[in-house]
Amino acid sequence: MSGTQVITRLSLKPVKTPFQQVTRGLFALVAAVVLISSYRFVGIDPMAFIEKRENAATYLFGRELTEFDRKDARIQAENLLKIVATEEAGEELKKRLARSGKEMPLGMAMHKETEALADELLSRKPEAEREAFVEREYRQILRDKKGGFFPPETSPSALSEYGHGLVETIAMAVWGTLLAVVLAIPAAMCAAENTLALLVQGEGRRHRVLRWLCHVGVRRFLDFCRGFNEFVMALIFVAVIGLGPFAGVLALAVHTFGILGKVVSEAIEAIEPGQMEALVASGAGNMQVISFAVLPQVMPLVVSYSLLRFESNVRSATILGFCGAGGIGFLMFDKINGFEYREVATMMIMVIVSVSLLDYACGKLRSRFI
């Protein structure tokens, strides 16, 4: 048995040439340089989470109020009662002067009369009503001073307003996705070489040039639509057609059209050609071949990716409101600017719940129709 050769995994492994080994080493070196350089550029610091954990707690749950904060809030609430009474007194004084036909006093005279009437109005109000007003404003000022996202705002009026904005956001995603799907399927037919050969038949030079121009032109147009983020497109459409959800619908439709057009065109080029060849050999027309050989093979993928993009568009439509494209994002941006983080937390929870429900529903649809 001395002549028997033992076969091992190492002996079966192909031997790399020196050039291949050098190329592999250079590739590993370039990858290491890119990773190290990008690590330094983005400033990754894992210890930042530990060092600044108190900032996160304060941002989420608010800061601890001091005795000075409580006294200052009480003073502000009491002053606000006086301010409201002064405004009411000013309006009442203008009405009285208008009814009597007298000229409105100027400067300090007007100020003194307004102050006197404000004191009179305050004295007429019951003590319990004044204390209830001060206490209500005092609690609101304390909440504003404390900050934080929790507990969320749960008043019926706020939930109704945010619910309307959420429905508008979902409607934007529905129409943005629908328009994109309707336009992406015919565009994908022109971007795929096998279906383009059916639409533009002939082997002459003119036909070949026409197919090449159509293929390259549609591909580059899809790249253009896909290359811009929805937020950038929304900024452009808001500047062109104005504020509102229609700008958001167009922004979502353009970006989703670019993505679906590329995905569907690549799926069409990867279909089984035997069905197309059989229909062509039997004398079927171009549209019959597309309807009975191409679309049945790609429709499961079209449905799957369309549902996936719809889920993504619901999240994207929320952000589009930050640039004035409507939806719940418009309300969220307004509350963030006003430091009303509890209202923001309510809207975030509503968006998360709705996206989760839509994800579940889309999963059921995919499992049923695909």
Question: Which features would summarize this protein structure in a list?
Answer:
MetI-like fold, 2 domains, 16 helices, 81% helix, elongated
Brief write-up:
By secondary structure, this protein is an all-alpha fold. It has helices at 9-12, 18-42, 47-51, 53-61, 67-100, 107-124, 127-146, 156-191, 193-199, 205-227, 230-241, 245-269, 273-281, 286-320, 328-337, 341-369.
What can you see in these coordinates?
Its main location: membrane. Keywords: Cell membrane, Membrane, Transmembrane, Transmembrane helix, Transport. Pfam families: BPD_transp_1. The chain crosses the membrane at residues 21-42, 172-200, 231-254, 289-308, 315-333, 345-362. GO terms for molecular function: ABC-type phosphonate transporter activity. By secondary structure, the chain is mostly helical. It has two domains: 68-146, no CATH class; 160-369, MetI-like (MetI-like fold). Helix content is 81%, strand content 0%. It is built from 16 helices and no strands. The mean pLDDT is 81.
What is the string of SSEs from the N terminus onward? HHHHHHHHHHHHHHHH
| Rg from alpha-carbon coordinates | 34 Å
CATH superfamily of the largest domain: MetI-like
Largest sheet: none
The overall pLDDT average reads 81
The number of domains: 2
CATH class of the largest domain: Mainly Alpha
Number of helices: 16
**N- to C-terminal distance:** 59 Å
Provide the β-strand percentage band.
under 5%
* CATH architecture designation of the largest domain: Orthogonal Bundle
Which fold name fills CATH's third level, the topology of the largest domain? MetI-like fold
Query: Which spans have pLDDT < 50 for at least 5 consecutive residues?
Result: none
User: In which range does the helix fraction lie?
Assistant: over 70%
- The SS-based structural class is mainly alpha
How many DSSP-defined strands?
0
Shape: elongated
